[in-house]
C-alpha cells in the first residue's frame, strides 16, 4: 500500500474533503508539533560545512595528546539537546576524528545532485584499517526524518568514547570490524527541509520533461528496482524510483562505495529512518522472500528490540520489511542483503510509534533518549553477531 503525508492549510480543508480521498488525520495542528520540535539551534557558531569539512586521514603515528585530553575533545553531550543546522554537522565529525587521530578518518563518498559533499567517518582498531568486515550505518535518506542523523552521531560518539575509555566490549569490536558512518545520504533534501519545506522527503534532483523535483533514495538502489508494486514511476510521487536504478547521484556514489567493501564483507548494515518504531529485515520487494539466515536475523532483531525496551520501555516491532510494513523495491537494505551479501541488513524506523500525532516532527527533547536506546540495541547486536 502506497500513501503520502500532506500538510493542509485551514483554508484548504473544505476543498480537500471534497476530493473524497481515503485519508486519516495524523496531526490536528502541525504548527504546534513544529513548535514542540524546537528551533534549529547553532552549536558551533554556524560554521559553513563546505568551508569547515576537512577530508582528514589518520595520523601515521599516535597523537602526542593524552587520552584524557582527547576525551575532553569529543563533542559535548549537549549537542543532542536540539536539532542543528546542516552547516555544523561536519564540525561534529571533525571533533570525533581529532579525538581518535590514529584510528579514524573523514572520507568523501561523493557529491549530491546540488554538489554537496556526502561525507562519512571511518573508525578502526589498533591493528590497522581496511582489512576487516565492515559495519555500515546510514542516516537521512529521507530529508524530513531529522532524528536519524543525530542517532547515527550518538552511536559514533559512544563508540569513540568507549574506545578512549578502554571499554572492553568496544575495544573488542574495534578489533573485529571497520565502522563506517554516513549521517547524511541526502544532504540537499535535508537543507531544503531546514530552509523551505520541513516535510520534504526526496532528494532535489531535477529532470527534463517534468516540473516535479526529486527521487526517493530508498527506491533507487540496483536490486529488484524494476519490479512493480513497491515504488512509483510518477516523478511527482514521494516514492518516485527514478528512470533507472542508481540514477540518483547520491545512490550511485553509495553503491560504488559499498561495492568496494564487498570483498572483505559487510557484517552489518543499518539504514536509520523515522517513524514507527520498527526493525525491518529483508526483504521489501517480496512478502514471501527471506534472507538465507532469516532465523538468525530474527533472533538478533528480537534481542535488539528487548535491549531498547530495557532502557526506555519503548517497543519496537521486528520482522521482514514487506510483510511487517509494506512492499518496497530498490531499497538500501534489500540491496545490501541481496547484492552485497551483508550478513545483517536492516531498516530501523525510529521514534515515535506508528500512531503518534507528531510523526516526522519529533521533539528535540527526545533526541538523546532516541540515541541512548539505539546505542543499547547496538551494544547487544555487536556483542551477539
TrEMBL record:
Alphabetic keyword roster: Carboxypeptidase, Disulfide bond, Hydrolase, Metal-binding, Metalloprotease, Protease, Secreted, Virulence, Zinc
Organism: Verticillium longisporum
Alphabetized SMART domains for the sequence: Zn_pept
Record's protein name: Carboxypeptidase M14A
Family note: Belongs to the peptidase M14 family.
Protein localization: Secreted
Pfam families membership: Peptidase_M14
Domain Peptidase M14 residue range list: 82-385
GO cellular component term, pick one: extracellular region
Entry-linked SUPFAM superfamilies: Zn-dependent exopeptidases
InterPro entries: CARBOXYPEPT_ZN_1 (IPR057246), Peptidase_M14 (IPR000834)
Necessary cofactors: Zn(2+)
Subcellular location, principal: secreted
Active site: residue positions: 349
GO biological process: proteolysis
Function summary: Extracellular metalloprotease that contributes to pathogenicity.
A GO molecular-function annotation: zinc ion binding
Amino acid at each position: 500500500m502506497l500513501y503520502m503525508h500532506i500538510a493542509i492549510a485551514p483554508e484548504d480543508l473544505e476543498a480537500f474533503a471534497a476530493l473524497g480521498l481515503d485519508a486519516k488525520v495524523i496531526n490536528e495542528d502541525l504548527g504546534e508539533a513544529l513548535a514542540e520540535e524546537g528551533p534549529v539551534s547553532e552549536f558551533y557558531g554556524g560554521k559553513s560545512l563546505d568551508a569547515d569539512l576537512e577530508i582528514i586521514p589518520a595520523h601515521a603515528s599516535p597523537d602526542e595528546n593524552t587520552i584524557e585530553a582527547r576525551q575532553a575533545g569529543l563533542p559535548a553531550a549537549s549537542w543532542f539537546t536540539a536539532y542543528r543546522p546542516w552547516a555544523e554537522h561536519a564540525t561534529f565529525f571533525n571533533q570525533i576524528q581529532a579525538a581518535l587521530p590514529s584510528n579514524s578518518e573523514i572520507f568523501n563518498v561523493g557529491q549530491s545532485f546540488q554538489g554537496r559533499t556526502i561525507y562519512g567517518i571511518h573508525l578502526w582498531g589498533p591493528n590497522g584499517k581496511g582489512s576487516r568486515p565492515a559495519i555500515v550505518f546510514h542516516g537521512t535518506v529521507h530529508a524530513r526524518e531529522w532524528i536519524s542523523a543525530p542517532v547515527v552521531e550518538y552511536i559514533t560518539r559512544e563508540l569513540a568514547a568507549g574506545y578512549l575509555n578502554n571499554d572492553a566490549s568496544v575495544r573488542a569490536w574495534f578489533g573485529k570490524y571497520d565502522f563506517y558512518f554516513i549521517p547524511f545520504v541526502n544532504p540537499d533534501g535535508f537543507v531544503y527541509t531546514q530552509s523551505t519545506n520541513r516535510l520534504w522527503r526526496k532528494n532535489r534532483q531535477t529532470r527534463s520533461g517534468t516540473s516535479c523535483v526529486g527521487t526517493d533514495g530508498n527506491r533507487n538502489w540496483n536490486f529488484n528496482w524494476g519490479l512493480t508494486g513497491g515504488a512509483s514511476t510518477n516523478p511527482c510521487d514521494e516514492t518516485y524510483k527514478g528512470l533507472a536504478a542508481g540514477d540518483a547521484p547520491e545512490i550511485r556514489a553509495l553503491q560504488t562505495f559499498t561495492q568496494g567493501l564487498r570483498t572483505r564483507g559487510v557484517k552489518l548494515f543499518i539504514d536509520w529512518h523515522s517513524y514507527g518504531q520498527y526493525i525491518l529485515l529483508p526483504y521489501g520487494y517480496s512478502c514471501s522472500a527471506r534472507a538465507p539466515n532469516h532465523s538468525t536475523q530474527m533472533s538478533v532483531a528480537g534481542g535488539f528490540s528487548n535491549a531498547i525496551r530495557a532502557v526506555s520501555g519503548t517497543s519496537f516491532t521486528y520482522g521482514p520489511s514487506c510483510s511487517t510494513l509494506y512492499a518496497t523495491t530498490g531499497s538500501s537494505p534489500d540491496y545490501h542483503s541481496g547484492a552485497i551479501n551483508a550478513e545483517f541488513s536492516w531498516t530501523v524506523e525510529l521514534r515515535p510509534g506508528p500512531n503518534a500525532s507528531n510523526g516526522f516532527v519529533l521533539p528535540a527533547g527526545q533526541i538523546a533518549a532516541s540515541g541512548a536506546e539505539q546505542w543499547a540495541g547496538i551494544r547487544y547486536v555487536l556483542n551477539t553477531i
